[in-house]
Write a structure and sequence with these properties.
The structure holds two protein chains of two kinds. By secondary structure, chain A is α+β, with helices and mostly antiparallel strands. Chain A contains two helices and five strands; from the N terminus they run ββαβαββ. The longest helix of chain A is centred in the middle third of the chain and has 24 residues. By secondary structure, chain B is α+β, with helices and mostly antiparallel strands. Chain B has one domain: Translation Initiation Factor IF3 (2-Layer Sandwich). In chain B, helix 2 crosses helix 3 and helix 2 packs parallel to helix 4. The longest helix of chain B is centred in the first third of the chain and has 30 residues. The radius of gyration of chain B is 25 Å and the shape is elongated. Classes of the chains: A alpha+beta, B alpha+beta. Chains A and B meet through strand 1, helix 1, strand 3, helix 2 and strand 4 of A and helix 2, strand 1, helix 4, strand 2 and strand 3 of B. Strand 3 of chain A pairs antiparallel with strand 1 of chain B, so a sheet runs across the interface. Chain B: It comes from Haloferula rosea. Chain B: Belongs to the UPF0145 family. Chain B: Pfam families: YbjQ_1.
Chain lengths: ~120, ~170
Amino acid sequence: MVGLLREDGREGSAFHTIMTITNIETIPGKTIVEHLGLVQGSTIRAKHMGRDFMAGLKNLVGGELKGYTELMMEAREQATQRMVEQAQSMGANAVVNVRFTTTTVTQGASEMLAYGTAVKCE
Amino acid sequence: MDSPQTTDLGDANGWFYIVLLLLYTMPFWGLLLTWLIGRSVERKHLRELVEREIHSQGRVALTGKHLPGERSVASSELAVGSVVVSVDYFKRWLSSFRMIFGGEMKSYASVVSRGRREALLRMKEACPDADMFINCRIETSTISNGQGKAVGCAEVFAYGTAVKFEQK
């Protein structure tokens, strides 16, 4: 996920964009002037064979499966980005009360859903 | 002339049986090896966790939605941290016995709890300039249950609102 700029000009992930995202009803330090409604983004990802093979080897000794961690975070960023894009199209500049859910659709594929309320803040 | 040849043959047979024995006891050696490696990986991770937790002790993570005290806030953003953890071969073998009698599965609990601590730390480390994290949530989900050839692992995901206070 590139191309999204932070307030300080650095390139960041979907979680740290020019749009403020919080998971509480308010934005600390800012006041909400308008509620624009629910926005959501989702993606379903399957893990690929190469990653699965390496994870299979790693699985023998336990510990973190880095390939899968990256995969899950990429998927979550994608979902967040889609949510942010929807909020931007509504003319919002922040998303509050964001929730994340993960569902295993089938063996080896997960759905990531991010949803929240698009707001205008000052 | 014949005697050395027979002893050679006998030696070869001996090796053959040793190799055969090793092959037949492969699962046992696998268990032993994965137990040893898995244990050292776990201990190393625990040492790292303690070190990092001490380092980020001052920046507390709260589950409440309200900021304690009256301090003006400069900025806030979403902080996320995630980790996928798996259980080693030896622990899975142990757990198959636990499945018969029931009860607490301590070997699995330690893995998931390590994952949870790791996810929380990653959440904190994702926002190095934040002073406090409010409304933190931890979510655990199974990616696959590890039946058949599938890799058994679970994801721990922690998220919250990172708050930066205004400098006095």
